[in-house]
Design a protein that fits this description.
The protein has three helices and four strands; from the N terminus they run E-H-E-H-E-H-E. By secondary structure, it is of the alpha/beta class.
């Protein structure tokens, strides 16, 4: 099965932080277009985006602090500027205790 024939062909996903890279690659293998969120690890986000492009998946890596509404709004604007609006969200960004959700 090629990426064009995947079960998620035509879907557009946003995957945020954490272990999201593995999930993003799985979505890409099924034909989805995927935006990958990162907070600090640009190298890892670029690696994941590069692997998705190797699958002929349209992808973008977006940096944002998602610990507050303004950060989430900024991320949405960045994605909308270069990527179709998403219809699937996989939230792997999180926080522990008093720390913010900056992954």
């Amino acid at each position: 099965m090629t990426w064009l024939e995947g079960r998620l062909s035509g879907r557009k996903a946003l995957v945020t932080g954490g272990i999201g890279g593995y999930i993003a690659l799985s979505l890409a293998q099924e034909g989805a277009r995927v935006a990958v969120h990162y907070y600090q690890n640009l190298t890892e986000a670029q690696r994941v985006a590069r692997e998705m492009r190797a699958l002929k998946c349209r992808s973008v890596a977006v940096q944002a602090a998602t610990g507050d509404a303004e950060g989430a709004r900024s991320m949405h604007e960045k994605i909308s500027a270069s990527f179709d609006p998403f219809d699937t969200l996989v939230n792997c960004a999180g926080s522990t205790g008093a720390a913010s959700s900056r992954t």
